[in-house]
Amino acid sequence: MTIRATIAEFNPFHNGHKHLVDSMKADGTAAIAVMSGNYVQRGSCAVYDKFTRAKVAVSCGLDLVLELPLVYSLSSAEYFARGSVEILNGLGLVDELWFGSEAADIGPLNRIADALLNENEEFRSVLAESLSAGESFASARQKALTAVVGDEAAAIAEPNNILGVEYIKALKRTKSKIAPVTTPRAEVGHDAEEAGESVASARALRESLKTGGSIDSYVPYPPVFEPVFSKSFDQLVSYRLKIATVEELAKLPDCNEELAIRLKKASSGNTIMSIIAAAHSRRYADSRLRRILFNLILNNVEGYASPTYIRPLAFSERGAEILREAADKATLPIASRGGALKDDKIFRMECRGTDVYNLVIGRLGGEEFLYFPNAQRR
Fold first, then answer.
1. Residue whose C-alpha is closest to residue 80's, from 230, 368, 288
2. CA atoms of 357 and 38, how far apart (whole Å)
3. What is the pLDDT of residue 196?
4. In the predicted structure, residue 378 carries a pLDDT above the cut 60
5. Cα(1)–Cα(234) distance, integer angstroms
6. Rounded Cα gap, residues 360 and 8, in angstroms
7. How many C-alpha atoms does 182 have within 13 Å on its Cβ side?
8. Per-residue pLDDT tens digits for 343-357
């Protein structure tokens, strides 16, 4: 059985995602996904909880949704990609990794990935010079890439291309047998504010939900629960930042002493938005600051080199077949029940994250140990 995979947040799942899933399955191939949990890479909570999003994705055509633990989903693009790819590698069955991109051509993305993996002297020199001049890392890296690969470096400025390059880098680093496949996005760009005829970006849908608008025309499923937004975490973030020391902040993933000082000076703010506005710097993306704040309230101070388990969140009958086949081929343990992972550090961090998410929305804690894929939720 050929198995194609994608890496996603489905925040929320929309018609563009459905288009990708349908393309992956066009010739009868199985399609699976590694999906972020309750926290996402831009430094925020997910608009719907991970169990709901996983079940929606399977109801819309995916055969299997695997969890990307928050220690990877709430991290830089490189670490996000690395964790996802290592989970797919660990399943032992995946043939292709599909992702949408602005490039719609794997060639330039491959060459950019090679340049980043094998930084030559010219690349390092231009990068160092640009950073010394006070440019952001993203801008400095693009200049360095342009010096090495020419005009193709422009592709790295687009959000989906950035993740695509990181996926390819992770595949190459791990010497994976999985082949990368890119496909053009349908109708609208990654963070487009304007909706197309039938497709809107996840960002546009979240903004519509914030203002009480309907997203029914852009999603292939009926409405689910009330959406959750970062604003609901304002008090938790403000409280933790006010009592944290600079030394504690500096130990968080993505943080350093300079950022820790900036955030501590901004701790008089009572909302995430006001804190980010006060700590903003041209050198550091706001998404990085947001990730630090969410890692702060979750007390995520440890580094995790590689995933230690594979956790299915939802699956179809075909997905169940995939899991049965993977039982003999997977190089990571597959655990559908939380109890099997109670001593795992990454899972304990996941439990903490889910309990905090549920605290904010008024749901009881302990859900990680009660949830089982495809079972009726309490």
1. 288
2. 7
3. 54
4. no
5. 47
6. 24
7. 22
8. 999 999 999 999 999
